[in-house]
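Methods, example record. To illustrate the input and output format used throughout this study, we show the complete record for Aminotransferase. The sequence lines were provided to the predictor; the line carrying structure tokens was produced by it.
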Amino acid sequence: IFAAVEMAPRDPILGLNEAFNADARETKVNLGVGVYYDDNGKIPLLNAVKAAEKARLESMPPRGYQPIEGPSAYAQAVQALLFGKDSALLANGQVITAEALGGTGALKIGADFLKRLNPDATVYISDPSWENHRALFEFAGFKVENYPYYDAATRGVDFAAMKACLGGLPAGSIVVLHACCHNPTGADLTDAQWQEVVGLCRDGGLVPFLDMAYQGFADGIEPDAVAVRHFAASGLQFFVSSSFSKSFSLYGERIGALSIVTAAREESARVLSQLKRVIRTNYSNPPIHGAAVVAAVLSSPELRQMWEDELAGMRDRIRAMRTGLVEALKAEGVSQDFSFVIKQRGMFSYTGLTAEQVERLRTEFGIYAVSTGRICLAALNSRNLAYVARAIAKVVA
Ligand code: PLP
Ligand code: TYF
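The corresponding predicted structure is encoded as:
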């Protein structure tokens, strides 16, 4: 059966973890995977999550099957974060939300649903994009192309090229957009640019698919929803995948959601019925724990405040590491201007380090980064910052 099976390539990011774990050096640092670590280098268990879990454990709830689309309390909590609790779309019944297995699972059920709706569409992802976007949509059966996005010269978005491309796509094309904290570049669109993208999607009859994996990691819960809010105000139909992996530090619980904005309540019912079919034929219904914890935190004023404070703490610590890295590089005598690191948003910095420099960081210093030069700032801390800065200074010298 398996004689002709070829060895698949490793995931370029998750594969790094395996190499890192096998490295015996005590000074090793993993700047590869996009995970938030606290200043002690540990993945935090948020106090808001602890409190919700304690209450849940004490109540010893039964473990029956969930509804196919997950609990409605969870869907409502997700919708309020994405669209704002007073959104007219919510009042009109124009949004359906299904719990999903992380942001990845949300993208996949969205992709599977779209494949049934519009099998011949091409999916467009940013150049570059999260490593898994292309493979995920290809495995769902789509042809995947890039639209221009990052401009290495300005370390920002080549918006003219992006617009020119989106403006020329055939109607029905699916456009995957990073709603905030672009992975891997940290370069986001401005408010005005989002409005232009909404206009291009409307004029071109495109299908927008917003991917929101880092709400709260740029400027805050509300400001980071700007892209979703512009699309919501446009009257268009669109998809949003969202994730609590990062914002709740619940990576392994696999908790995310797919939300779809429809034209009307009646349409929502039809769309949800088909999405439920996609879910049922994949995994029947989603797990209980992550959704219960997130819904409990977001529906309790005290726990919600605790969570917002803890999320702000993560955001502020990443910012401090950005500034710290830039200052430490200067102190190491690096003449190249790295101040762009402070302007990039979210967990990552696209450092401009070459694949050879990244390779030297690994072999000579035990510092692991993605070969594209992406590093995760959230893996820096007060103990490894100087070491990392010294190593970068050596490889760029
Ligand atoms: N989309 C983007 C842009 C991401 O960076 C990530 C990162 O993990 C995901 C989706 C997937 O999120 P999750 O881990 O919740 O599946
Ligand atoms: O980009 C990252 O590092 C995170 C984590 O297949 C991740 O989004 C990376 C690869 C992957 C799943 C999650």
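Annotations derived from this record:
The longest helix spans residues 301-331.
The chain has a mean pLDDT of 97.
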